[in-house]
């Protein structure tokens, strides 16, 4: 018998957005969950990704994590996120990545949102980032998941009138977090992680990740 620690449990972190992926890995590192080895999509054979057709962030996060787990047999973590703007009744919401019509075109998305809010006065520029993080553990049998956990995090604030800073990604340069004098694009990475929707959602998932690493059933 050897006392060597058991091999870490591989967790596929399923995002095609390199900057989001970096944030997810940073928060996981900072949380220091031992016994987990995050792996990226480039470390597994390519699989067809299902379209993100859910009406909510949680549904979309589950779509991504379920397809990653079913295709690879690995536990899979996915984030679905976006900016919900009060004056737009919660949009762009789940359409945030493709608000301008071109998926992942941050510049065009920011331009369009700023133009749409051009006449909206300061007191009605409220908005919040939302992240849903899903962890799906496959059962190794017929492909149906053995366990699923979804957590959500929110980061309240408002939409600025112009870009400030070039850190982060997406709508960060035009988002002013509540209580902050700097835009999300002007925050250091660790400042963003401490406050952000993604940081909050992912930290809420840590008990489930610890349970996975320990071979226990996931908390409800
Ligand atoms: O689905 P994956 O492959 O993870 O990558 P994606 O970029 O398509 O990710 P989403 O479908 O979750 O869409 C999220 C969009 O919401 C915006 N967004 C989410 N989190 C953000 C953040 O922390 N800062 C700025 N914008 C963010 C940004 O426009 C993202 O492209
Ligand atoms: Mg997406």
UniProtKB/TrEMBL annotation:
UniProt EC number: 3.6.1.66
Catalytic activity: ITP + H2O = IMP + diphosphate + H(+); XTP + H2O = XMP + diphosphate + H(+); dITP + H2O = dIMP + diphosphate + H(+)
Keyword NAD found: no
Record: residues binding substrate: 15-20, 81, 169-172, 192, 197-198
Cofactor field: Mg(2+)
Gene3D superfamilies listed in its UniProt record: 3.90.950.10
Pfam families per the UniProt record, alphabetical: Ham1p_like
GO BP terms, alphabetized: nucleotide metabolic process; purine nucleoside triphosphate catabolic process
InterPro entries for the chain: dITP/XTP_pyrophosphatase (IPR020922), ITPase-like_fam (IPR029001), RdgB/HAM1 (IPR002637)
EC top class named in words: hydrolase
Active site (catalytic residues): 80
This protein's UniProt keywords: Hydrolase, Magnesium, Metal-binding, Nucleotide metabolism, Nucleotide-binding
Molecular function (Gene Ontology), one example: ribonucleoside triphosphate phosphatase activity
Cofactor note: Binds 1 Mg(2+) ion per subunit.
Chain residues that bind Mg(2+): 80
Membrane-traversing stretches: none
A cellular component annotation (GO) from this entry: cytosol
Highest taxon above the source species: Bacteria
Role noted for this protein: Pyrophosphatase that catalyzes the hydrolysis of nucleoside triphosphates to their monophosphate derivatives, with a high preference for the non-canonical purine nucleotides XTP (xanthosine triphosphate), dITP (deoxyinosine triphosphate) and ITP. Seems to function as a house-cleaning enzyme that removes non-canonical purine nucleotides from the nucleotide pool, thus preventing their incorporation into DNA/RNA and avoiding chromosomal lesions.
Quaternary structure note: Homodimer.
Family: Belongs to the HAM1 NTPase family.
Protein known as: dITP/XTP pyrophosphatase
Gene source species: Dietzia timorensis
């Amino acid at each position: 018998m050897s006392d060597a620690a058991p091999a870490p449990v591989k967790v596929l972190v399923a995002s095609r957005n390199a900057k989001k992926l970096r944030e997810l890995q940073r928060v996981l590192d900072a949380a220091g969950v031992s016994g987990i080895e995050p792996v990226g999509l480039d470390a597994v054979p390519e699989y067809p990704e299902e379209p993100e057709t859910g009406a909510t962030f949680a549904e979309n996060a589950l779509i991504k994590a379920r397809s990653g787990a079913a295709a690879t047999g690995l536990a899979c973590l996915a984030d679905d996120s976006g900016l919900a703007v009060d004056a737009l009744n919660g949009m762009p919401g789940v359409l945030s990545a493709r608000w301008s019509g071109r998926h992942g075109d941050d510049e065009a998305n920011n331009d369009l949102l700023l133009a749409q809010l051009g006449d909206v006065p300061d007191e009605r520029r409220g908005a919040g980032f939302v992240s849903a993080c899903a962890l799906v553990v496959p059962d190794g049998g017929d492909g149906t998941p053995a366990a699923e956990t979804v957590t959500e995090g929110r980061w309240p604030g408002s939409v600025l009138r112009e870009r400030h800073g070039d850190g982060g990604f997406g709508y960060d340069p035009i988002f002013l977090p509540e209580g902050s004098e700097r835009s999300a694009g002007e925050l250091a990475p660790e400042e963003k992680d401490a406050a952000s929707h993604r940081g909050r959602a992912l930290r809420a998932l840590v008990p489930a990740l610890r349970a996975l690493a320990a071979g226990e059933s996931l908390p409800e």
